[in-house]
Design brief:
With about 300 residues, the protein is an all-beta fold. The chain contains 1 helix and 16 strands.
Length: about 300
C-alpha cells in the first residue's frame, strides 16, 4: 500500500505552489493512494491512484508529465531469461472521466512490451514499445483541472451542457522508448530517445493539422547527481506536433506545457550533501505552427530547484 500527499492547485500535471492570494491558506491533495500486490516473482498487480506503471525515461515526457499519477488498474510482468537479457510487459486500464448518467465513460488502455539487454560489463540497453488507445476522448474535456495548449479543440454539446476545450482529434498513440547507459571514464553516461505517433486518421480536421501527429525527443546525461559531491549535466532536443500526444498529460514545463512546440533543454545539477540537490534547468522553446494554438508564443524559461530529502 502506498500513500502520498502533494501541494499545488490540483492540476494533473503539476504540484507547484505559488506564494500568492494575500497569504491565503494552501491546499494539500491526495497525489497517490493505491494497493500493490506482488502475486508472483514476475507479476505485480496494482489499483488506485498510482505511480505511473509504464517504464519511462527523461525523454518520455512527450507523453507523460512526471507529476501525472494515473488512476485505475495496472499489471506488470518481468522475466529474466538469462544474465544478459530480460523481458518486461506493463498493462494499464485507466478511467479518465466517469458520468453515472452516461454509459460512454472515457478510458485509456495502455500496453507496453520491452527488453533489458546487458551489452557489456559497463553498458546496458533498454527498449520498449507502447500502444495507448483512448475511448470516447472526444465526448467532453475529461473534467480536467488544467487544459494545456496545442491540441486541436472544439466545443461539445449545446446550451447549459456545452463544454469547451474538448479534443477534436482522435487518439491512438504509439510510443517507442530507448535508453543506452555506459561510462565515459569514471562518469555515468546515458542516451535517451523517444518517438510518438498518433496513428488515428484526422484528415477531417483540415490540412493545417492533419499531418501534425508525431514527435520525438533525444538527449544525453553525463554524470549522476545523487550522493554528496556528485553532479550531472544534460542536453535534450524536443519536437512535439499538435496532435501527436494528449496535451493535458504532456510535460507542463516545456513552454507553456502541452504540444505544438520544439526546442532545447539544458540542465546542471549538483549535490552538496546526500540529501540536498541544487538544479538549474533552461528551456528554449518555439511554436511549430503559429496558425494554430498557442500561436506565436515562443517561451524561454529558467528553473532553479533546491530539493531536500528527509
Amino acid at each position: 500500500m502506498a500513500f502520498k500527499l502533494a501541494s499545488g492547485t490540483g492540476e494533473q500535471v503539476s504540484t507547484n505552489q505559488t506564494f500568492d492570494n494575500l497569504n491565503s491558506q494552501k491546499s494539500i491533495f491526495i497525489d497517490q493512494a493505491y494497493l500493490s500486490w506482488k502475486a508472483r516473482e514476475w507479476l505485480t498487480l496494482s489499483g488506485g491512484r498510482m505511480k505511473n506503471p509504464f517504464w519511462r525515461v527523461t525523454s518520455s515526457d512527450l507523453m507523460w508529465d512526471d507529476d501525472v499519477n494515473p488512476e485505475g488498474f495496472a499489471e506488470q510482468f518481468k522475466l529474466a531469461l538469462n544474465e544478459r537479457l530480460g523481458l518486461f510487459a506493463n498493462f494499464a486500464q485507466m478511467p479518465l472521466d466517469e458520468d453515472s448518467s452516461d454509459n460512454r465513460d472515457q478510458w485509456m488502455f495502455g500496453h507496453q512490451l520491452g527488453a533489458n539487454v546487458k551489452v557489456s560489463q559497463q553498458s546496458k540497453w533498454n527498449v520498449a514499445a507502447t500502444l495507448y488507445h483512448f475511448k470516447y476522448e472526444n465526448l467532453n474535456n475529461f473534467g480536467a483541472a488544467a487544459n494545456q495548449e496545442g491540441n486541436t479543440r472544439k466545443t461539445a454539446g449545446s446550451g447549459s451542457s456545452a463544454q469547451t476545450d474538448v479534443l477534436a482529434a482522435s487518439f491512438t498513440i504509439v510510443q517507442l522508448t530507448q535508453e543506452f547507459s555506459t561510462k565515459l571514464g569514471s562518469l555515468p553516461f546515458k542516451v535517451h530517445a523517444d518517438y510518438v505517433k498518433n496513428v488515428q486518421s484526422n484528415g477531417a480536421l483540415g490540412a493545417a493539422v492533419s499531418d501534425q501527429q508525431s514527435g520525438y525527443q533525444v538527449g544525453a546525461i553525463l554524470g549522476k547527481a545523487g550522493s554528496a559531491k556528485t553532479w550531472e549535466a544534460a542536453y535534450f532536443y524536443k519536437w512535439l506536433e499538435t496532435n501527436a500526444a494528449i496535451a493535458d498529460l504532456s510535460d507542463s514545463d516545456f513552454g507553456d506545457g502541452g504540444t505544438n512546440r520544439r526546442g532545447h533543454i539544458f540542465w546542471l545539477a549538483f549535490n552538496p550533501r546526500d540529501y540536498v540537490q541544487v538544479k538549474a534547468k533552461y528551456f528554449n522553446t518555439k511554436v511549430l505552427r503559429t496558425n494554430i494554438p498557442p500561436g506565436a508564443d515562443n517561451i524561454n524559461r529558467l528553473q532553479v530547484d533546491v530539493s531536500v530529502k528527509f
